[in-house]
Amino acid sequence: MGRRHGRARRAAEAPAVALLALALSGCSVERPGSVLAPAGPAARMELDLLGLSLVVVGAISAAVLLVLLYIVVRFRARPGDASEGADNPGVTWLEVAWTAVPAGLLVLLAVPSLTDTFYLAKPVAGGMRVTVVGHQYWWEYRYDDLGLVTANELHVPAARPLDLRVTSADVMHEFWVPRLGGKVDAAPGRRNFLYLQSDGPGVFAGECTQLCGASHAHMLTTVYADTPSAFEAWRAELTKPFSPPPPGSAAARGMQIFAAKCASCHAIRGTAFKGATGPDLTALMLRKTIGAGTLELNRENLVRWVTDASVFKPGVLMPSGKGKLALTDAQIRDVVAFLETLR
Amino acid sequence: MRTAQAFWRWLRPWLTTVDHKRIGILYLVSAAFFFAVGGVEAFLIRLQLMHPGSRLIVGDTYNGVVTLHGFNMILFAIMPLFLGFVNYVVPLQIGARDLAFPFLNALSFWLFLAGAVVFNWSIVAGQYPNDGWFAYAPLTLPAYTPGLGPDFYALGGQISGVGTLITGVNFVVTILNGRAPGMTLRRMPLFTWAALITSTMIVFAFPPLAADLFLLTFDRFLDANFFNVSLGGNVLIWQHLFWIFGHPEVYILILPAFGIVSEVVATFSRKSLFGYDSMVLALAAIAFLSFVVWSHHMFTAGMGPVVNGVFSVTTMMIAIPTGIKIFNWLATMWGGRIRFTTAMLYAVGFIPIFVLGGVTGVMVAMAPADYQYNMTYFVVAHFHYTMVGGSLFALLSAYHYWFPKIWGRMLDERLGKLSFWLVFTGFNVTFFPQHFLGLFGMPRRVYTYPDDWGLTTLNLVSTAGVFVLTAGFLVLLGNTVAALVRGERAPADPWDARTLEWSLPTPVPEYGFARIPLVTSRDAFWAMKKKASERETGSAPAPEEIHLPPPSALPFLIALGAASASFGLIYGKPWLGAPGAALVAFGLYRGMFGRAPGVVVRPAEEVRA
Ligand SMILES: [Cu+2]
Asked: Has domain A250-339 been given CATH number 2.60.40.420?
């Protein structure tokens, strides 16, 4: 992304970035959502703007604060002093100066800001198209070129530009992966473009930033920027034919329950299960978490989730297994056994 | 029985008053109440966020508290606090006896209160709006938010909005037509200028809100489908109309603050204001620009680079007139004899904090950078720096400045300073870390956050700040009570001030000026004090009798009817709604066509002499 960054601008930003680095070096805490640790060109471009603006506004603020401090000390009324300050209705050159100088500084900020606005508004060549659909409280990912559908955990080839088309199936959401770049609204009836890209392989946290209901706080996501081979392996897993569990096993019983109770909402590739209100569960076991980053994926959590997801996510739209779906503990264990075969 | 009668004798004048001073006090007291409500809500929010994973208020309850906090603070606390001071002070500053339309003024107040009550009734009903103060569609539609919450929001906002709109008209007319002889526009105090410009903004900003709330009301009550995408609706309509109101609204909350700071800084520097003309022009420029920047709230709505670019540039331009104001205040203090009273401390404290809020405003105005800041705590920090550190500090300055005139007592300065330092420290400890919370990825309106995102310490610090802030407000409350109970009696002009309201005796007589002053220069009262002789020759002869508009119960009844009509609509109870609507119609009819004799007052001999 060197193309648009003049050396002068880099030099100007250096102090601000150094300052931020200093502020952060004290704390060795890892911050998976930090804008200040960009991991791709879009995020870096945006951080550069932050750095540039910080230099400019930092200088202005510091100047104002110093003058204010001087005034407060120097022109303090001495006790018993009843004299007046000398009136001064205005000084033209001064007033012109403090109008023109800030205006000039703003131009300095506006120019890169505008060029970046236009740059970020269109897809980068060779990008991978993914449709991102916000749902009350989870993310659906549709790989338009690959014909894949998954949820909450987005696998992409590392360093490949992403051409995301973001929309919503219900209310307003907003899609954000801070270390890869800025956010965009997921609005029903609209498809908003977002360009993200990673520098290399890595795992990047993301989340919904638009209040979307009771579990807005539990609408996280993860982007896995995979090496080419890892991405290929993942894709192969998702597309391989469905193999039904051996007859008579717990999983086979679970599959029947799934067909009766779950398939109206959940789809699994290669089966007759085509529900679309809930996340696609194809190759579920490849995920690290369930419930949009709410719980680690393991047997115990799957049981708890199917038993009653609203314990973890208030207002969740998945009905409780114990309540509304009227499943027994044994049935829940069977269904989970079936889920565990999904890989 | 006796006490009941005494109580009624005390209450009645308040219910029927059309006197701008009493109405000002009504605004101040009720807004202070809603400020306390909003404050408790803020406190709950910070308690919940103190640690990751706490379960004090979760999910929809948390969202409700956030919504109530935002809407209460903006529409029912900060704005009416300003309106209270504007009501009390502006007519006195321009040498007017009252507003142009005293009846409408009372109506404005009661409608505001009725709206605030309808909105907050949602707490009592246990079904509060929980879609955020800007309530983005389609979350507010019954499909996603069943229950009554958004109904209280829409109707409460609508009623109080009408009240505010009327008051806007009233002040434009009053300031343009009601000035004392010699009080030319360019001699008006800055606070009056700010009131004039703010009122003009109200006139243009509130109709879009009314339209937006109507669309929501129609969608919720009549399935009108304005925001229902599957039937051809469009959710961006809500956002555009809301911010066409909402952005001017945040400037409606800051321009009066600029006016207050200008008055206080000049008075306590013992100098006239530096750059008067540029101050007025800057106010006007900010007001104009504030109507052409609304889409910067929607940089991530997918409007395309041209729209984002244009709104980004207009937004940055606001920094120029705002900077002018800051520099002019500094230049006013330069060479002055600065007295650090509590009022002045708040005004001076306002400056650095508003600078910080302003420069983060420039940062979020850069669209691509805002793709990162938008909807995070960075923005939360930014607007609390402008609205708490800005608007509220100015209000606290105004409070300490005009308290002696309004209540006739002096606040204790030592307690005042203690509360200032607590508020100043608490404010910064609370909100400064929130810039970093935003940069570290914490979105707005989440009731909890992951414990491994490095957000834990800063959230704890932020919550700690709230305790200090609260202590500051408690000291302020104690100071107020002490002053009212056994405070020193206030002289007419305790600060050696510059504008006409200080020329009146304390307490201000019902009729205000016995003799309408004759204004010969800016800082009219200061000039009179310097040329004491001119005061004798310079004012109009004192009238024998002063005619005042008659008190009326109609404004109160109209508002009562409006509230009752809303409740009838919300609860689907015609027996509650129909009489309410009838009362509104009757009240308006009587108010417009009824005749009532005015009241005649004879000013005491000594003032006429
Ligand atoms: Cu969401």
From this structure: yes
